[in-house]
Amino acid sequence: MRRRWTATVAITLASVLTLAACGGGGKGAQPSSGGGDAKKQVEVFSWWTGPGEADGLKAMRQIFEQKNPSYTFFDAAVAGGSGDKAKALLQSKLQADTPPDTFQGHAGAELQGYIKAGDLEDLNFLYDELKLRDVFPAQLVDQISVQGKVYSVPVNIHRSNVLWFNPSVLKEAGIAGAPRTLEEFVADLGKVKAKGKIPLSIGSEWTVTHLLESVLLGSLGTDAYNALFKPGADWSSPQVTKALETFKTVMSYAGDPQDDWQPAAKQVADGEAAFNIMGDWAYGYFHNPPDGGLGKTSKTDFDWAPSPGTEGTYLWLSDSFTLPKGAKNRDGAVAWLKVAAGKEGQDAFNPKKGSIPARKDADQSLYTDYLADALKDWSSDKLAGSIQHGVSVNQPWLAAITEAVGLFIGSKDVAALQKALADAAKANAQ
Ligand code: GAL
């Protein structure tokens, strides 16, 4: 799998250097206490509890348990898509110096925040031992490094800019295929509305920020989108105003907000709604057998396309696992990281999770259907970093964006949204 990384990587690298200048420091690393007859528990912290995503974690856990009979896997997952609740709890655990043994953190600006706070041990020893620099794309390793030290193990690559749709609902509305531009999308949303179905399903608040990043990318184009995260970026431009006006129009076709991303995606699979813009974890949910997923048939019950206006760009994110300083069971955490880094672990996890492997040497035959499309696009598309999922903005910046989007949902005030987004960029761009 060969990859072309574009501007977004350079941007984050610049922030890496800034962070590096600030230095790490903080808590000291504590090796684990040994001993004890009882099986030692390894606390793995994530937010993969819900239908679809829990399947991926379960598959990786099985490999971990086979390989590590002396450890017990303790699933410390906190419910709530995109980690909105998990990350808040994690922060309090880190501040209280009671970290889980390992936690999920997104490659990019989000992980850089944990590194800067001195929360993480560097993993160079593991990268050397397992020769991991040879198997992960160098530019992905850059996103999780500071000054030559690597701080996490990436398990996957997800795509954020996917338009999921129900082919029958589109047909009923006289829509021939997935819309390729935002203008076509708006026209199609109107056609679905006229038929009395939900044009666009949405979930809890974070799914609206998720939608916003796809609309920004689709409206601005890749280079202008990536430029939004450079120091001094112009969020006040007429181009951003236009993108936000389009966002407002798109949102005017949204159905009632569902509790999280799964019930919103299910409205599409069940034929109640036509479209949903969601990351490709939705594929795992649609496709996995009914004990975890919906067991739906691809191309019949659901279909996909790049979100309107974004064909040729992979709006990417990557889940990775860390070694927090002061973890109670450091050896157990390292054993987990070895599974997460390994080919077997990644090839068990990703087909269920709806993601493609971070490793370049994965067994490509396991990635079929939507995932074959994803592998192909990943190898040739331009890149843009997700906002909602930790690549382009750090957690304080995302919190400010989330607040602005939350207010917008009530007010529908584009000027106020744009000003809040511009202020958030000024306060947080590094
Ligand atoms: C993302 C995460 C994905 C998936 C999604 C929905 O932030 O990277 O793995 O879990 O949230 O919960």
UniProtKB/TrEMBL annotation:
Compartments it resides in: Cell envelope
Name used for this protein in its record: Probable sugar-binding periplasmic protein
InterPro entries assigned: Bact_solute-bd_prot1, SBP
Organism for this UniProt entry: Nonomuraea montanisoli
The keyword Ribonucleoprotein is assigned to this record: no
N-terminal signal peptide: 1-20
Family: Belongs to the bacterial solute-binding protein 1 family.
Biological function: Part of a binding-protein-dependent transport system for a sugar.
